[in-house]
Design brief:
Radius of gyration: 18 Å
Structural class: alpha/beta
Strand content: 15-25%
Strand order of the largest sheet: 1-2-3-6-7-10-11-12
């Protein structure tokens, strides 16, 4: 398991990863993005920003980096960074397949990505990822599995994924939507030749959306590494947009709303890696303070009042505009 490398790390931030969704393409749904990125979102400008973030993250103890085929040129930017640092052998690289980026480097495209969990898409995107990341890739995840995904029942796909696992690649999946728990439990039941197929799960969990927690605990107990995404709820828990309760607790701790929001996730016993989706090095530095936030029972009780009904949360997320 590549995540065994993190177990040997001693930095407080080794269980915080860096996700590249916000900087691998010019358009994304995070709030405040207009102020976060360079005015001219050229390929070169975002490559430079991505490399700045990767350098800063590594220097501050981050050891997991997460990309996807649909995150614009995130794999390409990450591959360029890795080529200049061939000696880095203490990091874990993950990517995802299942969505195709279709915005053609535009922020106002009618469709930014198209989902397809068929074997044909896996084989095409696996070849594309391999051309960029090669043997630096540790983890390959099915992107945004839902209970109705054909990836849960396609035996031919399962066989191909098991073949990749036999060759040393860790196979995982991510989830999204109000039925994440159902998707997680269905994926845990997938086996090939009697052996579980998936070794990691990446799900949305944050102070507003906690519904996947019991299923994530089950996945952890089954031996999977749990990766948490969207811990900032696409910017809804960041300073300018944060609920008053979170702002008050951040003031009490002397740190940012983002650090408090991520600290809530880090304290979950099943959370293996919690992703930062920072788009600036200042955001990243603030996110990493989550590792030293200590919340008492009263503060946690107050934060629990923020939880939303899952369908309401995901409906709100679906209405966020691409910036």
């Amino acid at each position: 398991m590549p995540f065994a490398r993190l177990a040997a790390a001693t930095t407080p931030t080794c269980h915080i990863g860096l996700g590249l969704a916000a900087v691998g393409r010019p358009g994304y749904i995070n709030l405040g993005r207009d102020e976060d990125l360079p005015p001219e979102r050229t390929v070169d400008a975002l490559r430079e920003r991505t490399h700045e973030l990767l350098d800063a993250a590594y220097a501050q103890g981050v050891r997991y980096f997460d990309a996807a085929r649909s995150y614009g040129r995130s794999e390409e930017f990450l591959a360029d960074w890795l080529k200049d640092r061939p000696g880095l052998d203490d990091i874990v690289i993950g990517s995802k397949w299942g969505y195709t980026y279709t915005a053609d480097w535009s922020t106002d495209a009618e469709t930014h990505e198209v989902k397809d969990h068929t074997l044909a898409t896996y084989e095409r995107q696996r070849a594309e990822t391999d051309a960029l990341l090669g043997d630096r890739l540790d983890l390959y995840q099915i992107h945004s599995v839902t209970p109705d995904s054909p990836a849960l029942t396609d035996k031919e796909l399962h066989a191909k994924l098991a073949e990749a696992a036999a060759q040393g690649l860790t196979i995982g999946f991510s989830t999204s939507g109000p039925a994440q728990a159902d998707a997680i439990r269905a994926a845990l039941a997938v086996t090939v030749d009697g052996e579980p197929l998936f070794r990691t799960v990446q799900s949305t969990y944050n102070a507003l959306e906690t519904s996947a927690a019991p299923a994530l605990a089950e996945a952890h107990d089954a031996g999977l590494t749990v990766i948490v995404k969207e811990g900032m709820a696409n910017g809804r828990l960041a300073g300018p947009h944060a609920p008053d309760v979170l702002k008050e607790l951040a003031e009490q701790t002397g740190l940012g709303c983002d650090a408090v929001a991520l600290a809530v996730i880090l304290r979950q016993p099943w959370a293996g890696v919690v992703l930062s989706g920072a788009a600036t090095t200042n955001q990243l530095a603030s996110n990493l303070h989550a590792a030293v936030v200590d919340l008492d029972d009263d503060q946690l009780t107050r934060l629990a009042t923020l939880v939303e009904e899952p369908r309401a949360y995901w409906e709100r997320r679906g209405q966020l505009p691409w910036h």
